[in-house]
Predict the structure.
Amino acid sequence: MDAAAVLYYGHCTLLDAVHDLPERVWNRPGACGTGSARDIVAHLGSYELVLCDVLTSVCGQGEPTPHLDEFISSGAQFNDTQVGLRRDWSVETTLGEYNAAHDRATELAKAVPTSIWTKTGTIPWYGAEYSLDDLIVYMYYGHKREHSAQIVAYCDQLSRSAASP
């Protein structure tokens, strides 16, 4: 698997989904439950930061992994906490954090030895039977595709509502 390519295509899918999103719509609730498109990008940005920590940890660089630690320790609260921390951020800042974290994760992915990608047990917190490439496909690529589709569907819904008499 070419992890950098998988990350790239997931990233492009999200950027395509938000490319023509009008500024006035970014913070409007309803794109994903009560969350806005900006909330989705904030959520995905926090996950990109976790990925940076995951890749750092599997390469044994010995650097702190605060985002991964928070992800593991807070469980289901992680998303609400992270989106809440970014609640007052501008669209530009939120998207900027996501893009910067994605760029860093892509560079870190290139440094991961090929033998590590398919080795199960390297990320026990995700499940002993999973490998790093499973994580990339499910938690990152699939995750971005799902949320991108929600944003596109939301925009379609808004367009239909605006066109209705």
Q: What stands out?
A: The chain has one domain: 3-163. Residues 71 and 78 are 6 Å apart (CA to CA). The chain has a mean pLDDT of 93. The first helix runs from residue 3 to 18.
